[in-house]
Design goal:
Layout lengths: L17 H31 L6 H31 L3 H7 L1
Amino acid sequence: MSALSSKMFDPGNATCSPASKRIYAWYAIAYTVVDVAAAVLFVIGSILFFRESTTTIATWMFLIGSVLFGVRPCISLVREWHLLRIRDYGDLAAEA
């Protein structure tokens, strides 16, 4: 298989150039930050559900955590789109 690919989610897209490695790393950081934030919101929200007086804030934390879990796949899609955008398709044609 060619080192250059025009397909999304091809593992080679993340390491084919220094620029793609940097882009992949930044998106990996964003993904991890969102993942940790969602998990923290769910844990704190769970604790807050033990008291009736904090049920509303717990519900909001669950909602925000759920939205963040929905953001995760969006980060992956945008990362893949970004990696494809920076590709040099002239090199792809030359390899074919």
